[in-house]
Amino acid sequence: MQKTEKFFIQTFGCQMNVYDGWRIATMLEHHGMVRTDNVSDADIIILNTCAVRAKATDKVFSALGRIRRAKKPSALFGIVGCVARESGADAFRRIPDLNFVLGPQSYHKLPDILQNPDTKLLNIDLGGLEKFDELPQMERSPRVAYIPIQEGCNHCCTYCIVPYTRGREISRAYNDVIRDTIHAAKTGAIEICFLGQNVNGYKYTDETGHTYRLSDLIRETAKIPEIMRIRFTSSYPTEMTDDLIEMFAIEPKLLPFLNMPIQSGSQNILTKMNRPYTLELYCDIINKLKIARPDIQISSDFIVGFPGETDQDFAETMRIAQKIKYINSYSFKYSPRPHTAAALMPNQVPEITKAERLAKLDSYLNDVQREFNESCIDKTLLCLLEGPDKTGKHLIYRTPYMQQCIVEHIENAPELTDIKITAANKASLRGKIIN
Questions:
Q1: Whole-angstrom distance, CA of residue 156 vs CA of residue 162
Q2: Which of 45-49, 178-182, 239-243, 259-263 shows the lowest mean pLDDT across its residues?
Q3: Nearest 5 degrees, angle CA 184-CA 187-CA 188?
Q4: Could you tell me the residue ranges of all domains in the chain?
Q5: Low-confidence winner among 97-106, 136-145, 148-157, 380-389 (lowest mean pLDDT)
Q6: Burial, 4: exposed, middle or buried (Cβ in 10 Å; 0-12, 13-18, 19+)?
Q7: Residue 204: in which H helix or E strand, if any?
Q8: Of 15, 50, 109, 158, which is the most buried if we count CB atoms within 10 A?
Q9: How many CB atoms lie under 10 A from the CB of residue 97?
């Protein structure tokens, strides 16, 4: 009797990588393999990687070092995704017994290594959208289905490696996206999250000359009965067009929550970052969104310690954070990345200064997040079941604002239900399901 081969996959980074990981797993299952969580038991080991910061790349190569010591001698192992594209053939030099290095638009080539296990496979071509055509559909969708609608980015921020690792912006065909959305709905999805490095820049023109935007995808997806919640990430401020803002006013399935990174509150630093919007424009967009949807809440991304950032520049970042009051944010120390202009800029900020500024910003952002969470006490929110916690004693739901809400475990818990919030802290809410 032939032994069933097993695969191990570990995903790092963004939701696009999470989606890629799901599709890789589905592809390998279609080749008769089964998933394992034990590296030493796997016949093929895949690290699905993120290169957005130096620390993320270092984590990948640290993990590779551990894996090479723990894996079976016969097991194939390699990296896919952004670190593969960033490192290229140099990855084989750093880890000589790697079997494959595949970029984020090449992982559909994995079956080639299964058919030719004695060869080394390197493919970091940017290509196009072929992987979406070649990969099999998932037979069962999770409750939250991530649907990529475009790859790459044209904005070329001076700190960002994405244009190098994922290439220039390409939007998927409108009908292909709707097909995937319908398939997800028919196989278990309740929530759709549209993905893209510049998701609200989605623009596809069909053979008749008609151009579709993200607002069109939202409008059509909302017609699907099984889909109750819609969101998208990550947004670029200048792409937040009026037709998209209007969707927050007219489509109740679109969640009242938006991640719109500002990165810095200093106009000087935004210019150095090559982010061509003014603070006035950014704030005007926020005001339009709040008029369209009064209950909307905003999250953001911040980079502190960008080359040349002065104390005054950082003070302006603190002021914009205090003005907008983001309910959830991701803030990081600037990390020089290869193939980016900012890595070569003068006046690099010392690490100790970056750490001090990050601690100050995080402290304030955490206070705002806690205040917002506490403001939800005694409110009733319609929440989506995520699954049990690690103890099995509780269930985790997500509110319309992506807060984690913890309730007591019950059998046959509803997937989408009203929960009355009874307590809150910085990290999460607690509540009771309303029968």
A1: 8
A2: 45-49
A3: 85
A4: 6-123, 130-375, 380-433
A5: 136-145
A6: exposed
A7: strand 203-205
A8: 50
A9: 15
In this structure, what token pair is assigned to residue 410? 């019950």
CATH no., domain 130-375? 3.80.30.20
Place of tokens 């800029």: 345
Q: Is the pLDDT of residue 226 over 60?
A: yes
Report pLDDT digits (tens) over 351-380. Answer: 999 999 999 999 999 999 999 999 999 999
User: Which residues, in sequence order, are CB contacts of 171 under 8 Å at separation 6+?
Assistant: 149, 150, 201, 202, 203, 204
380-433 folds as OB fold (Dihydrolipoamide Acetyltransferase, E2P) (2.40.50)
What are the residues whose beta carbons fall under 8 Å from the beta carbon of 127, sequence distance 6 or more?
Answer: 105, 106, 167
Percentage of the chain lying above the pLDDT 70 cut? 98
Please report where in the chains the tokens 């290439």 appear, as a residue. Answer: 167
**Tokens 């993200």 appear where?**
214
Right CATH for 6-123 from 3.40.1440.10, 1.10.3720.10, 3.30.160.340, 3.40.50.12160: 3.40.50.12160
pTM of this structure: 0.92
- Closest to 237 in 3D by CA, of 195, 204, 270: 270
Among candidates 369, 250, 284, 275, which has minimal Cα distance to 321? 369
- Using a CB cutoff of 8 Å and minimum separation of 24, what contacts does 267-273 make? 267/316, 268/308, 268/313, 269/306, 269/308, 269/309, 269/313, 269/317, 272/158, 272/306, 272/307, 272/308, 272/342, 272/345, 273/157, 273/158, 273/159, 273/303, 273/306, 273/342
For 156, the 3-state DSSP assignment is coil
Phi-psi map region of 156: left, alpha, beta (phi>0 left; psi -120 to 50 alpha): left
pLDDT at 139: 75
133 against 62, higher pLDDT? 62
